[in-house]
């Protein structure tokens, strides 16, 4: 099983960051790669579309409001992996009220690609996503 993790400090309190990203359907609010999210199964599944119109379907597998984190599994996507589970979480930065650390991590089995290729793919997605989040919060 392969894995990757990216962290970024962003210019907002953990509460503000979580209020923006903590909803399972909130990706279009901060992630340009996902302009559309449709809630299914009472909000436990999200059907996403990327700018090319490709569909990604993900299931919420864990949610913890007090710890400001959730995990999800990919059910369908144009990515060369299976067994994908990812977690996004928001941490306080000690001594900084208006800063938070956001960590986005995932583990998965390569399927039709090398481990390095899929690690690079998701590292890039997480890094670009957290850069976009930083830009949204800094605006």
Report the helical percentage.
10-25%
Number of domains: 1
Please report the distance between the alpha carbons of the first and last residues: 38 Å
User: What is the count of β-strands?
Assistant: 7
Question: Which strand order spans the largest sheet, edge to edge or round the barrel?
Answer: 1-7-6-5-4-3-2
Describe the structure in your own words.
This protein has 139 residues and is α+β, with helices and mostly antiparallel strands. It has a single domain (2-23, 60-138), classed as Alpha-D-Glucose-1,6-Bisphosphate, Chain A, domain 4 (2-Layer Sandwich), CATH 3.30.530.20. The protein is built from two helices and seven strands. It has helices spanning 14-21, 115-138; strands at 2-10, 36-40, 45-49, 55-64, 69-76, 81-93, 96-110.
Short structural summary:
By secondary structure, the protein is α+β, with helices and mostly antiparallel strands. It has one domain: START domain (Alpha-D-Glucose-1,6-Bisphosphate, Chain A, domain 4, 2-Layer Sandwich), CATH 3.30.530.
Top keywords for this entry?
seven-stranded antiparallel sheet, 139 residues, Alpha-D-Glucose-1,6-Bisphosphate, Chain A, domain 4, alpha+beta, 47% strand
What is the secondary structure topology, with strand pairs?
Elements: E1 2-10, H1 14-21, E2 36-40, E3 45-49, E4 55-64, E5 69-76, E6 81-93, E7 96-110, H2 115-138
Antiparallel strand pairs: 1-7, 2-3, 3-4, 4-5, 5-6, 6-7
């Amino acid at each position: 099983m392969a894995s990757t993790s990216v962290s970024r400090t962003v210019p907002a309190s953990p509460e503000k960051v979580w209020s923006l990203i903590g909803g399972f359907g909130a990706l279009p609010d901060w992630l340009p790669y996902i302009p559309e999210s449709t809630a299914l199964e009472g909000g436990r599944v999200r059907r996403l579309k990327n700018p090319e119109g490709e569909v990604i379907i993900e299931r919420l597998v864990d949610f913890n409001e007090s710890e400001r984190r959730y995990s999800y599994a990919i059910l369908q996507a144009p990515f060369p992996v299976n067994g994908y589970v990812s977690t996004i979480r928001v941490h306080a930065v000690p001594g900084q009220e208006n800063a938070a650390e956001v960590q986005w991590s995932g583990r998965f089995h390569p399927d039709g690609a090398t481990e390095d290729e899929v690690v690079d793919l998701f590292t890039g997605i997480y890094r670009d996503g957290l850069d976009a989040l930083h830009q949204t919060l800094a605006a």
